[in-house]
Amino acid sequence: MRKMTEQQWRAFVNYGTRTGKLSTSRADGSPHVTPVWFLLDGDDIVFTTEKTGVKGRNLARDGRFALCVDEDRPPYAFVLLQARAAISEEPEGMRRWGGLLGARYMGDDRTEEYAARNGGPGNLLVRGRIDKVVAFAGIAD
Q: Cα(70)–Cα(95) distance, rounded to whole angstroms?
């Protein structure tokens, strides 16, 4: 097992269509984990979510979250990012990032479709400044 460099973990999380497993805390302190589409923007993790969904409610109450991105085949690897969310409902930013997320996960030809779908009313744009990174590759080596 080897620790990834910053260049390695950034390349790893940006590769293809890997989803992140987002961990937030419910009001009673219990964990909530769900897969999300995400992008890195410098030192920020960016994603959208529904305002009234579990993720949205949890992040509005407590902005701390963790995002785990992994490779589920040998020799296995993972990157765990811890961050604090800044939440926005600004329509232009939500449409822009909704489109970029759609392009990454569904293809460039569906950018506008996902900009409208994930950038409209009732959605939140979440931007989390990365506070901590734990990243290992070759876990089964």
A: 28
> Nearest 5°: phi and psi at 63?
-75, -5
Q: Give yes or no for a contact between 39 and 125, defined as CB atoms under 8 angstroms apart.
A: no
Q: Helix or strand or coil: residue 131?
A: strand
In tens, the pLDDT along 26-50 reads 999 999 999 999 999 999 999 999 9
Q: Which domains does the chain have, with CATH numbers?
A: 2-137 (2.30.110.10)
Q: Can you give the pLDDT at residue 119?
A: 81
- Model's pTM, two decimal places? 0.94
- What is the secondary structure of 28-76 as a DSSP string? TS-EEEEEE--EEETTEEEEEEETTSHHHHHHHH--EEEEEEEE-STT-
Is the peptide bond between 31 and the residue preceding it cis, with omega within 30 degrees of 0?
no
Whether residue 66 has pLDDT greater than 90: yes
Cα–Cα separations (whole angstroms), residue 2 to 23, 48, 74, 76: 24, 32, 14, 11
